[in-house]
Every structure is written in C-alpha cells, then in structure tokens.
## 1
Amino acid sequence: MSKTVRACLLIIGNEILSGRTHDKNLPYLAEQLNELGVRLAETRVIPDITQTIIDTVNECRAKFDYVFTTGGIGPTHDDITSDCIAAAFGVPLDLNDEAVKMLRSNYANPDVDLNEARLRMARIPRGAELVENPVSKAPGYRMENVYVMAGVPMIMQAMFQGIKHQLVGGKPMLSGSVGGYIPEGMIAEVLGKIQDEFKNTDIGSYPFLREGKLGTTLVVRGEEQADVDAAVSRITDAIIGFGREVVADEPAS
Amino acid sequence: MSKTVRACLLIIGNEILSGRTHDKNLPYLAEQLNELGVRLAETRVIPDITQTIIDTVNECRAKFDYVFTTGGIGPTHDDITSDCIAAAFGVPLDLNDEAVKMLRSNYANPDVDLNEARLRMARIPRGAELVENPVSKAPGYRMENVYVMAGVPMIMQAMFQGIKHQLVGGKPMLSGSVGGYIPEGMIAEVLGKIQDEFKNTDIGSYPFLREGKLGTTLVVRGEEQADVDAAVSRITDAIIGFGREVVADEPAS
C-alpha cells in the first residue's frame, strides 16, 4: 500500500487577497510536487497579520506532511513571515552568519549596500536549514517540515529546484484526459457509472466553450497508468456513442 | 468606529489544486468585495473530499462575516458541494421546485433534456435562498452567511452581480500607489518610518523588474483618502530624495 504524501501551500500576502497580484506559485508547485509523488492537498491565502500566520503555520504543519510558504521574506516592514515562523516554532530569530555571507555576495560594495533593512533578510529562525536563492541571494529555509520561500515566482521556482531532492513522495498521480463537444449534463450519468467502475481513479469533469460550441473535458487521475488509460478509453467510447465529436486538443480552463 | 467586515473565499475543486485550472475568481471577488467595504480576509483552496468541505465550511462560516464558495455545483458525480453544504448545516438536500423551473427554462425540450444528472443541479439545501444564474440557469444559493456559486468565472461573476446588493460592508479600503526604479532594500528603512507615521494605512512593498531595471511599487491602503494621499506623497518624495526615477505606470505583478 502506498501512503499518500500530502502538502499544503500557504500564500502569505495582502497583495494576493486584495486582487492586485495574481498568484502564479500554486500551479507551479502543484505540478512539480505531483511529479515527486506529493499531493497538494490544500492551499490557503492569508494576510500579513502576525497571529493569523502563526496560527495557520502551526495548524498546517501538524496536519500535512509538508508545508510550503511563499511571500513575506523581503527587506521591508511588511515582510513578517520569518518573525511568525520563529514564533510558531518557539525559537529565536537569529542573524544567521551563513545567510549574511550569501547576502554580501549580492553586492559590489556590501559594507555600504548591505544596510540594516537588507540584513533583515538574514534573520533566520534558530535551527533552520537554509535554502539557496540563486537569483537574488536572500535565502529561504526549512524548519522541520515547513519550507519558507520567496513570493516572486522566478525566485520561488529557483528555491524549489534546490530543495526538491529532499522531498519524499509516494506514487505520483498519473493523468489522462479526453475532450468532446458534448454538454456535461448529457454525459454525466454514464460518467458516474464509469467512475463507479474505476474506483482507483478520480474522474473530473470540466465544461468549456470554444468557438460558441459547448464541450466537456474529462480528466482521469490515478496511480496506475493502466487504470487511467482504460477509463479514458471508456469515456472516449461514450462520447462517440452519443454521436459527438472528440476534441483532440481540449482547452485547459 | 467602523467595523471591519471580513469574508472568506472557499475555492472547491481538485482541478485547481492539481494546477490544471488557474483560478480567476479570487481577484474578481477581492476587487468587487472591496468596493462594497467587505475585506477578503482569507481564501482556501480545498479538494473534492466530502469531510474536508464540510469541516472547512463550518469552520469558516463561524469565523467570517461572509463565506463564498466556488465550484462543485454542476451535474456530474464530482459535483458534491451541495451535499456538503446541506451536511454542514444539518439540513436535507431537497429537489427545489423553483430551481427545477429555472433549469427547465434552459432547454428547448425539457422533458427530454432535463435528465436525472441535470436535475442534480436543482437539489438545494432546505432553507436556502436561490441565486439566479443568467448564463446557464442552474442557480447558486445563500444559506445564512454562505453564498454558494459556480466555478466557471463567467457564471460566478453573473451570480455575484445578482447578490452584491445584499452584502453589508464597512468602509471600503481606498488605495493609492507609486512606483520607482529603486530597489526595495534601499527604500525599506524610510518606508518603515513612513508606515510608523501613517498608522491608519497599510503600506505594501512589491519589487518588479522591467526592461532589466529593478524597481519597487509601493501600495498604500486605508479608509481615508487624505491618509492614503499623504502617505503616497511622502513615499514619492523619498524616491526622488534618493535621486531615483518615479515610474508613472508601475506594472502590476
């Protein structure tokens, strides 16, 4: 029996909740984790409020195998993630020598440019393991099962590439899909029967509209390629059985 | 004293957590709610798992003034939101006459086309108030402080336009912003001081990279236009004080 390894993403930042910034880290992390056999099981977007961050981190690190946070580790007053992580774990937030060294490497004239605000980025909860930031040097870190990463997608992605070898996953979820110019409501009943038959898969149904024509994409996810393929094949037959056209390149929604 | 009215968005669906579908409802809802003086205080993305949906709905409806859900109210087997809402409130899930009537209006030949699967969309928790769906007729609904809406953005938006007059907000958050070709770490210290001075505002700092030049957008949010304007003006002076160029149209990230 394979254990399902579950992760939670905490997106920290008022700018996401205000609608100003559109998160791009969720889809990236979801796909990367899936390849490693780790399921993104929940995501929370929370504001820059100390107690909310502390409580959410503590709840989620107990509940999930891995927690990833993005955002709030920059040099400005609104970057409070590290203070909150230290508080959540009940450890001091130290100026970390290794992190200072990393930061210095980012400046031609570190004695001038590495000012007090930038040094905030070298304050790391005691006991954490640093995560390299090849883009702008200010590191992320791992504290037990919590990975603290930057919010800027390019930096977040670089950090993730540096830690993914540490993650221990279960079986990756495989997926297959088929689309058809058929309304959801027409295929729903037979789809439910196919789902009952293929209990080792999850079949998702997603409507689309293309060039004025209504269609549905059916996505089958499961741990065994044979199950996925068989279910996709049955769904394809069902679409054809209704006399409807199968779509080769169904659009992602 | 104005009370802050807080809302939570629950995005329900495996397709968001797998990275396949990119949510577009959060930014829309955030901006719309803000105009009504309602703060989007948290968002959770949760999978199509019955107990998770029930528990999350119950936790969040107690914690926030309003809860909005998107997704999972279609005709297929993976649409389980209504079952979960009924269970969360401890009420039966009835076939709702008014909802059936709405659905019938969507079909030229309802006696044939309104099959059992489609009738699933007329199952509404007892006591709920329907929310019209001008696009595809299958309604959403309100159950106490929980609004249940479709996941398809076009439909979700139409539903929201139909219910927004019901929402009672506090003072809307006003915002102003200024960008400059200045690194965050350079302006961070003075920015912290400006934040300390303008305690009625929240100042957010967001780095950007444009044409190879590093810059920062500073966003000031507050309930009073005068506070917002004064803080933006002070930040603008600070950028100029560093001899840096102010950006007229700073990019959204």
Note: Residues 187 and 239 of chain A are 7 Å apart (CA to CA).
## 2
Amino acid sequence: MRPICGAASGCAVHASGKGWCCAWRVQCCGSDKGEIRLTFSPGPFGRGRRLANPGILFYRGLSIISYLGAKDPGMGSEPFIFCPRCGARLTQRFMFGRERPVCPACGYVVFYDPKVAVGVLVEHEGKVLLVRRRYDPGKGGWALPAGFVEIDEGPVAAAIRECREETGLIVRIRSVLDVFPVSMDPRGPAVFIVYRGVPIGGSLQPGDDALEVGFFPPDGLPSPLVFASTRRALWRWRREKGFPERRFY
Amino acid sequence: MRPICGAASGCAVHASGKGWCCAWRVQCCGSDKGEIRLTFSPGPFGRGRRLANPGILFYRGLSIISYLGAKDPGMGSEPFIFCPRCGARLTQRFMFGRERPVCPACGYVVFYDPKVAVGVLVEHEGKVLLVRRRYDPGKGGWALPAGFVEIDEGPVAAAIRECREETGLIVRIRSVLDVFPVSMDPRGPAVFIVYRGVPIGGSLQPGDDALEVGFFPPDGLPSPLVFASTRRALWRWRREKGFPERRFY
C-alpha cells in the first residue's frame, strides 16, 4: 500500500505514490498533523477484497489507518435532514471538532455515532458455534451469532440475547475476544465487540433469522464465512488450536 | 439483592422479596421467559452508590442483570419526536422486537443506540496516565483519557485521538482491557471500550478538556476517581501489580 499524502513530515507514512480506491484516515506518530486524508486506488487484492477489510491497518508499524467510506458521515445509515426534537430543517455548523448537523431553531446537535454490535465465539468440545444467515447482509453465509445492542441493555446481555435468539443456546460470557470496526455494513458503521462464551443451557435450533446453526471444528469450517470480523475472530481461534492462521481478506 | 419477579420458573433468580429502586433487565438461564423486569428498592449501599454501578451483575451465578434506567429508551439523550428524514411527527410501533418510533409518512424507523466511548489505560514505568476533567460529567475528578467514537473512525483510532487531545501523548494500543456498559451518563447510554496502551511520542500536557494530566503509581492514585468504569479498570490494574483489588462502587 502506498498512500498519497500532501503533508510533509518525518513520519514514514508520509510517503507519496500511487494510492488505492478508498478514503482512509491516518494517525501517525511523531506528526503534529495527527490526521491526514489519503486516497487509494485498487490494490493487488482488488477493490472488493480490500473493502471487505476496512479495519485498522498498521503501516510500517507507525500508523493507524481507519476507513472513512463515503463522504456522507452517515454512510450506510441516512443523513439527518430535519431536527428530531422540533422538526426544523437542519443546517451544517462546525461544532466539537467537525461539521455537524445543527438545528437553527432549537440548537439540537446531531452526533452521528457508530452502532454497537456484539457477537459470541461460543466454543464447545473444541468446536465453534456458527449461524447461516437467512437475511442480508451476508444472506446464506456463515457468521458468529451476533446483533445490535439496544440502548437499554449492556453489551454482555445483548450478546447472550442474540445468541439465544439465533441459536437457541444460552451462553455464559467468559471474556472479550476483541473489538472490530465495521464500516461497510448497509445498516451503517458499527463497532463489533466479540466475546468468548460457553453454552450453559438451551437447545440448538435456528432462530427466525437463521437458516442453519451448528458447531464446527477448526479444520472444518463451513463456507462462505461472511464478514471480515467473523473471519478475523475465527482465524485467531484456529491459531490457538494449532492450525495455521489464514488471511482474513 | 432480592429481586421481585412475577414469573414462575426453576431459575434461582425467580425469587421474590423486597426489591431495589431501579428497573433492571434479567436474562436467566433455563427459563424460556428469557427477559423479565424486576424492580428494586434502595439497597444497603444506598441509591447513589448503586446507581454508580449500573453494569452487568451476576445473580447467584445464573443471571445477567442490566440497568434499564428511566422509562424513556433514549434516557440521557433526547427522544425523537420528528422524523429526521422527512420531518413528519413520529408514532410508536412494535417493530424488531419492541416499540420504536416510526415515521407514518416515510417509514423511517428510529433505532436508539448506545454511544461508543473509548478510553486508554496508558502504562509507563509502572504508572498509569490519568486526566483531571475540566468539564462535566465528572468535572474536577480524575479519569482515564477517553471520549466518543465518531461515525467515520475506528475505535482504536478514536482512542489514540482522544488520548492525544487530552494528554498530548501519542500512544500505541496493545489490546482490549475490557468493555463496560455506561447507563447513567447525561449524554446518554454508552458502551465504553478500554484499551491498554503505551506512550510512543508526544509530550505530556493537558488539552482543552483537561485541568491536569499525570502518571500515578498503583498505591498513589489521585482522588476523586470519577466513573465506575475508570475505577473498575484501575482496580484491575492495581490487582495485576499485586495491590489488593478495591470495590469499585
């Protein structure tokens, strides 16, 4: 990857060259610029594969690069045009570090937030629990049991609820496996928290959102596995089991 | 804690007794009810202390209990009255498992989501980086460098940005320490992701939001420490250093 950047700095990321197709944000150490915008043209893995992995990249060990997506900050989700508090038409104003929709009538400020999704890597007898999705995104593919956190529930409770709804199993959450950024979901950008869990009750049966559910060994994972975060979590789990870690994009 | 519950089940949580003051959601194993509402009267720690710890509770090792807060699902943040897409007045309708504000004119569905906050436990030479807050919530108290994730940035990038803005230090993120639910923040419910990090550049100086910044040893933490999540993260860090873990609420 060769970023295009107009900034001059001693930081290694401030190289110039032929870029890729997406807009990314870069934070680089040693630079008081802090954040710069890069553009990239399609790379060796093609646009689709690159877009499937919009997460954090380390560039020469010095920089954090995150996907910016489309210009609309509400990418995926819809931009706000009217004030949800008083119904007036919103205007754009620079507030809290960036342009945000602000209501000229009542002063309401729209903060576009990523949604919070949670999933569980449920392990039982050396196998992992996966769900074949009935609906888009990822329709027909296999993924971790997962879903969105409601505003009035904790992330652990949401992970347990989603797992029960999709697989019929009740799990106990053990720990946080990792947190992944999700930027290409049609429902809007999200932060995806993946927990480790073990089954403690219930009975295995696909929920309304699932076509099939099942446990799979590390050397017999089903195909296709959908969502970069599912693949990243599973490859890490495979590595723990002594299988080679595969690339996730 | 003695929950009041009308449901009949073999689950240990389905006891009855004198409750406490808040509304909580319970998910209990072995019950096909799944979620029940309990009410609690003020407990032995008093209302204030209980409210300071609205996180996940395990009840007799069988149940997950999460804080529901006020009846308004947008508690802390404001409820939506008008459609942000077309400006029409919203109505309530049962969709996707619960009542949600829906636009009768254009069909827009409001999903109230928790915000995503990130913080960093930055360790250097056995000491931890803390910030004394200039503004509410927690004005004048000490907390981890932290803030909200913007919709177009990853959580790691946001954690690095917030740390740089508040403390002047550039950090490298090592791992996820844990994820905490936040329900009593006046800015609305949030999921708080705490990372572990180490400084790799910059210079220590308080940002616009901070009164002071500094590194503190595990046996010399400043006071008051604000936010239950900060305390939970710090007590865990203290325990790793061989100091006794203190209660965080």
Note: Chain B is about 15% helix and 35% strand.
